[in-house]
Specification:
Blueprint (H helix, E strand, L loop, with lengths): L6 E7 L4 E6 L4 H8 L9 H6 L2 H4 L1 H21 L4 H28 L5 H14 L3 H33 L5 E6 L2 E6 L8 E4 L9 E5 L2 E4 L1 H4 L5 E3 L4 E2 L4 E2 L4 E5 L7 H14 L3 H32 L3 H14 L3 H5 L2 H13 L2 E3 L2 H8 L3 E5 H5 E12 L5 H12 L5 H12 L7 E7 L3 E6 L2 E6 L1 H7 L4 H12 L3 E6 L4 E11 L1 H12 L4 E5 L4 H11 L3 E3 L4 H15 L2 E5 L5 H6 L2 E5 L5 H6 L2 E3 L6 H34 L6 H20 L7
Helix pairs in contact: 4-5, 4-7, 5-6, 5-7, 6-7, 6-11, 7-9, 7-13, 7-26, 9-13, 10-11, 11-25, 11-26, 13-25, 13-26, 14-25, 16-17, 20-25, 25-26
Protein name: Cd(2+)-exporting ATPase
Membrane topology: Multi-pass membrane protein
Pfam family, one: E1-E2_ATPase
Length: about 675
């Protein structure tokens, strides 16, 4: 395709079974013509979904036909039929079973590119040349079986990813000119109002403009617990609407939805080679020619030097070619990487390539941002201390009446707490805000002030009675809001950024699975940092850091532990995440910056996904190492059996096929790992 005038570049992603062509637009017919030699053809997505693997795969059909000819040949042999008939049937079984292999192998041999197809082609051709018709037919058939089963297991891993693409509907009900029209998602424009009935999937990203419901966002965030949505709530394509009807204003085109971008990024991730895969490819590059030279030596040296029989020497050389074929070694890494990345995507974790998968599995230390990562990023009331005769419920009602007029985060926390406690709201009049200090209002005919301790000190309010309680709360890292007037303080409200429910559990799980060091990096003052650090259980905390301070801290940790992860919100912490071995963003759903900057994205605001992802990465590393070790041990053991002449062509192909299938099935175990 690259040679076609007007085509700038072309890339095939086998993991996602997609081709990307840059430049001239080629028709499906042109692509099919160019891809015919390698049996690559373009199909519509719905055709592919409905295609039956065993019936639609040419390798499978030819292998089945080869089996038929092989059984007829063996029957002919058993019935003592004329020799030419038996040999002809064996040759038919060989040609049909080995057709796909030879079609790919011969061009490579002509270019001196020795891959597994080339090795098998030489082996089968050699067996026919020395008259081993039966062995040639069996080897061609068994290699066809191996290729078919391998293609099937890879298709299973690929299907795990492709099921993501089927989450979002292809049509949407949209209001146009006062009428509801069902349109293909490609025709839906930004700003259109989309109607979503109870139980339907959302076709586009958008913002709710009418209606209230619960929405299951598992396809995007991996979180199966439905979230409540109402006007101004953000919703994502692929989410399932609950019991209420919704009207949603579309904010992104079909190709830009969060789900579409997740799929695109996962597909790109499959194209990126893991370091282990790069090593295996380099190893195979030298290993294969070395085996060919060794086989050539086995075929020529014994007859020429030791006067051994030509036929047995060539036979042993062919057996060596087959058994030394690096099939299992070559598939040892990519199937594991595709399986792990696909599994993570289903659980709401986006891993952007084999490199990041391997890096995460080998992390020794992980640094965490505080606000929005270990904490919710929203203050909550932790304690109310009435100082006079007024009850806790009464002071909460007065404070909520005043703070209901303010937009400050601390004000919203007090109002939210009052709603939770069902405190009876009073009416506040003559509200005056004093920016940076607090506010004044009249409640039930009496003037009150609410705000920071500094506000009351400036008013000259006596503080002796509350000083001890105030200092105690501040030492525990609480932000304190006072309620009172110029004569007295009637209540203290202690607020803190709430620690995430999942943070402490996630950190203890990381310790259990072998992360040596956890560190919290924050711009907050030391007292607050210490309180949060103790609550979540990090090994160390560093407070009052500017963004460049976080970068220096990550560099220092990297020098000590070599491999370090940085978990943040994907925006403020981008510099520190870039310096870390692996940058991990929290809450990527709806955050373009997180999707772009991080190496790994936890789509939900859920830290419990981090230990799962580290476990998955470590399992992937373990399985890749198992696969490589098993492949090499099997090969060397089989090669050793060649020299005494104990290895037949049949055993050789069984050893090769068995190793390849076991390695592939071992890799597919990664699909089953769950949080």
């Amino acid at each position: 395709m690259k040679k076609v005038p007007g085509v700038v570049d072309a890339r095939v992603n086998f993991g996602a079974s997609k081709i990307t062509i840059v430049g001239k637009r080629l028709s499906p017919a042109e692509i099919n013509r160019l891809g015919a030699f390698d049996d690559i053809r373009v199909v519509r997505e719905d055709e592919e979904r409905n295609a039956h693997f065993w019936l639609g795969n040419r390798q499978v059909r030819l292998t089945a036909l080869s089996l038929g000819f092989l059984l007829l040949a063996l029957l002919s042999q058993g019935l003592d039929a004329p020799s030419p008939l038996t040999i002809g049937l064996f040759l038919l079984a060989t040609v049909v079973g080995g057709w796909e292999t030879a079609r790919k192998g011969f061009p490579g041999l002509l270019k001196l590119q020795f891959d597994m197809n080339g090795l098998m082609t030489v082996a089968v051709t050699g067996a026919v040349a020395i008259g081993y018709w039966e062995e040639a037919a069996v080897v061609a058939f068994l290699f066809g079986v191996s290729e078919s089963l391998q293609a099937y297991t890879v298709a299973q891993a690929r299907r795990s990813l492709k099921s993501l693409t089927e989450w979002a509907p292809r049509e949407a009900a949209v209001l146009r000119d006062g009428k509801e029209r069902v349109l293909p998602v490609e025709e839906v424009a930004i700003g259109d109002i989309m109607r979503v009935k109870p139980g339907e999937k959302l076709a586009m990203d958008g913002v709710v403009v009418a209606g209230r419901s619960t929405v299951n966002q598992a396809a995007v965030t991996g979180e199966s617990v439905p979230v409540t949505v109402e006007p101004d709530s953000e919703v994502f394509a692929g989410s399932i609407n609950g019991e209420g009807a919704l009207e949603v204003r579309v904010t992104k085109r079909a190709e830009d939805t969060t789900l579409a971008r997740i799929i695109a990024l996962v597909e790109e991730a499959q194209e990126q080679r893991a370091p282990t895969q790069a090593f295996v490819d380099r190893f195979a590059k030298y290993y294969t020619p070395a085996i060919i030279l060794l086989a050539l030596g086995m075929a020529l040296i014994p007859p020429l030097v030791f006067r051994a029989p030509w036929f047995s020497s060539i036979y042993d050389a062919l057996a060596l070619l087959i058994v030394a074929c690096p099939c299992a070694l070559v598939v040892s890494t990519p199937v594991a990487v595709v399986s792990a990345i696909g599994n993570a995507a289903h659980r709401g974790v986006l891993i952007k390539g084999g490199l990041h998968l391997e890096n995460l599995g080998s992390l020794k230390a992980i640094a965490f941002d505080k606000t929005g990562t270990l904490t919710r990023g929203e203050p909550v009331v932790t304690e109310i201390i009435p100082c006079g005769e007024v009850s806790e419920r009464e002071v909460l009602a007065i404070a909520a009446a005043m703070e209901a007029r303010s937009e400050h985060p601390l004000a919203r926390a007090i109002v939210g707490h009052a709603r939770e406690k069902n405190a009876l709201f009073k009416e506040a009049r003559d509200f005056e805000a004093n920016p940076g200090l607090g506010a004044r209002a009249v409640v039930e005919g009496k003037a009150y002030w609410i705000g920071s301790p500094r506000l009351f000190e400036e008013m000259g309010t006596p503080m002796e009675g509350v000083r001890r309680a105030l200092e105690d709360l501040q030492e525990r890292g609480r932000t304190v809001v006072l309620l009172g007037d110029s004569r007295e303080v009637i209540a203290l409200f202690a607020l803190a950024d709430a620690v995430r429910d999942s943070a402490k559990r996630a950190l203890s799980q990381l310790k259990r699975i072998g992360v040596d060091k956890t560190v919290m990096l924050t711009g907050d003052h030391a007292v607050t940092a210490r309180a949060v650090a103790e609550a979540v259980g990090v090994d160390e905390y560093r407070a009052e850091l500017l963004p460049e301070g976080k970068v220096e801290a990550v560099k220092e940790l990297r020098n000590t532990y070599r491999r370090i992860g940085m978990v943040g919100d994907g925006i403020n912490d981008a510099p520190a995440m870039a310096v870390a071995t692996t940058g991990i963003a929290m809450g990527g759903a709806g955050t373009d910056a997180a999707l772009e900057t991080a190496d790994i994205v936890l789509m939900a605001d859920d830290l419990s996904k981090l230990p799962f992802t580290v476990r998955l990465s470590r399992a992937a590393l373990r399985i890749i190492k198992q696969n490589i070790a098993f492949s090499l041990i099997t090969k060397f053991a089989a090669v050793y059996l060649v020299f005494p002449g104990w290895l037949t062509l049949w055993l050789a192909i069984f050893a090769d096929m068995g190793a390849t299938l076991l390695v592939t099935l071992n890799s597919l175990r990664l699909i089953r790992i769950r949080p």
